[in-house]
Specification:
The protein is an all-alpha fold. 73% of the residues lie in helices and 0% in strands. The protein is built from 25 helices and no strands.
Length: 524
């Protein structure tokens, strides 16, 4: 079986013996961007039943098979509805394969392997050998070791039948390259495993706020693979080396060291022989991490400039900018931009930028993970709150709180509940405070991760209904401010300020000043 078609044939074989679940077909079609849909229509018969079904599914945000059957009531193709769905699934996959043929390095290598196999089957060994040499060198240049191993395996078969080649020398060279490729592939896989562990650990808790939370990251940092850069045997492995070190050191609050690794990571992309779409997306990820370090260490100007570098990748590499790839750049830039605007107290500037951010958010939200979407919504709520538009802030907070998506960043929901209480206090809706407080307490008890900052604020919220004068309110706010200052001497507890500046809020109430004024004063 040809290498290029191996995976696709397995996939098609599987689906030929099983019914395509309706949601799978709908999800596949809804995932297509405008160019992918246009290409599918271009290579398809516009009058075919499967194209008519495609058009019907495109129009549905939520798949409703009964509605589609009603739409085609009386049409002969309904008697073959299941086979037509199955065929449509295959045709969409095939159009994607054809559309992206030759557009990335790995696809180009697979095509060369396919051509070499065809030439070998036709008895053209020497020509096939030339293609395999090119494929092998290209695969090794781009750290695509599995493809290199496939090329080497085919080349071993070919050299035995070419009389002009010294078989012993050729086999020795191929065996050496095979051993090297296998070693580097295993080395790269080990770094990918470490990176996957970090991804899993950070999925549920965006901000680590206890010593226990940091233990796994400290353990990862002590892994022998991270002892020195020379442990990474390929450029791709070095990417992971600096990325992992940067994340772990940042979480352990070794910000200077973290930023150095993140700078090295960004610089590595300048060494790429010919970036493809995947490498452009990895570059945007490296810039994202660098911007996070700059926020903590260098200030708003440098951090926002790095955000600009992420968005400019779309202009630098327009040939790779599908709707999905644009969405990746946008979500990273938007999460950072909204975060930096609220973090540095640039609330008025944030209001000016929000219309375009909201427009893009509406466009790319279907491609964003639910946890990143909630973080972005929370940042927007903070911008509105700091700009003295509490009702608009509430609209975004309520969207976070009532969203039913699974596996989200729990801390974002938690602080949305707390900020909602603060806003209702600001608005004088005292009668709602007890029920809002109970809702927050119930959520935190279910989460089983009640930290001191949340407890301290909820103690205040429970006490709030018994406050009967402005003087008493200011005195209690002063006491709470002092308690938070004492609590935040613990650097891990202070991480609650990654979400909201409690001290600034209580100080503003004590002094009768605007929150934004006190907040910016504290940020310096």
């Amino acid at each position: 079986m040809l290498v290029y078609n191996h995976f696709l044939n397995i996939l098609l074989c599987y689906y030929s013996f099983s019914m395509i679940p309706s949601t799978d077909l709908h999800q596949l079609i809804r995932s297509l961007d405008k160019k992918e849909k246009a290409y599918f229509k271009l290579v398809s018969d516009p009058h075919a039943d499967y194209v008519r079904l495609f058009d019907a599914i495109v129009r549905q945000r939520v798949y409703d098979e009964a509605a589609i059957k009603l739409q085609f009531a009386g049409d002969a193709f309904l008697r073959r509805f299941a086979p037509v769905k199955n065929y449509l699934f295959h045709q969409v996959l095939e159009s994607l394969v054809r559309q992206y043929s030759g557009t990335t390095v790995d696809v180009m290598i697979r095509e060369q392997l396919r051509k070499a196999e065809l030439l070998l089957a036709k008895g053209l060994r020497k020509t096939a050998h030339k293609l395999l040499i090119k494929a092998r060198k290209l695969a090794l240049l781009h750290d695509l070791y599995l493809l290199a191993l496939q090329a080497i395996a085919l080349e071993k078969m070919i050299v035995r039948g070419i009389e002009t080649i010294n078989f012993r020398d050729a086999m020795k060279r191929l065996q050496d390259e095979e051993a090297m490729a296998m070693q580097r592939h295993q080395n790269l896989s080990a770094y990918i495993d470490l990176d996957s562990r970090i991804f899993y650990l950070r999925k549920m808790i965006v901000v680590q706020r206890s010593a226990k939370d940091l233990v796994p990251f400290r353990d990862i940092l002590h892994d022998p693979l991270l002892s020195h850069e020379n442990k990474a045997l390929s450029r791709e492995a070095k990417f992971f080396f600096h990325r992992i070190k940067g994340i772990c050191l940042s979480l352990l609050q070794e910000d200077k060291k973290a930023m150095l690794h993140r700078k090295h990571l960004v610089e590595l992309f300048a060494t790429l022989p010919a970036p493809d779409a995947e490498q452009v997306l990895k570059q945007s990820s490296a810039l994202y991490d660098l911007a996070v370090s700059q926020r903590a260490f260098q200030g708003a100007t440098e951090a926002l400039q790095t955000v600009g570098r992420i968005t400019r990748l779309a202009e630098t590499f327009p040939q790779f900018m599908t709707e999905k790839n644009l969405s990746v750049l946008f979500k990273r830039a938007t999460v950072l931009e909204t975060d930096f605007l609220q973090y540095f107290g640039l609330f008025e500037e944030g209001l000016l930028r929000l219309p375009m951010l909201e427009k893009n958010l509406k466009r790319f939200a279907p491609y964003m993970e639910s946890d990143l979407l909630r973080i972005t919504h929370f940042n927007i709520a903070l911008i509105f709150y700091g700009a003295e538009q509490p009702r608009k802030a509430l609209r975004w907070l309520n969207g976070i709180i009532h969203e039913s998506a699974q596996e989200v960043a729990e801390d974002v929901v938690c602080f949305s509940l707390l900020l909602r209480i603060m806003i209702h206090i600001d608005l004088g809706r005292d009668e709602l405070i007890p029920s809002l407080t109970r809702a927050a307490v119930n959520y935190l008890q279910k989460r089983k991760r009640l930290y001191k900052a949340e407890t301290l604020f909820l103690d205040f919220a429970n006490q709030y209904p018994s406050i009967h004068s402005d003087k008493m309110f200011r005195e209690i706010c002063m006491q709470q401010k002092i308690k938070f200052e004492k609590l935040f001497r613990n650097t891990l507890e202070r991480k609650a300020e990654e979400y909201f500046d409690f001290i600034a809020w209580f100080e503003s109430k004590t002094l009768g000043k605007k929150f934004a004024e006190v907040y910016r004063g504290r940020r310096g």
